Amino acid sequence: MPGRLALCAPALCARPAPARSPAADRGTSPPVASGRQPAGAPSAPALPAPLQASFRFEKLARQVVVTLVRPETQQVVRQIPPEKILRLIAYLREVVSATLDRAGLDRRA
Question: Which secondary-structure segment (H or E) carries 103?
Answer without folding.
Answer: helix 83-103
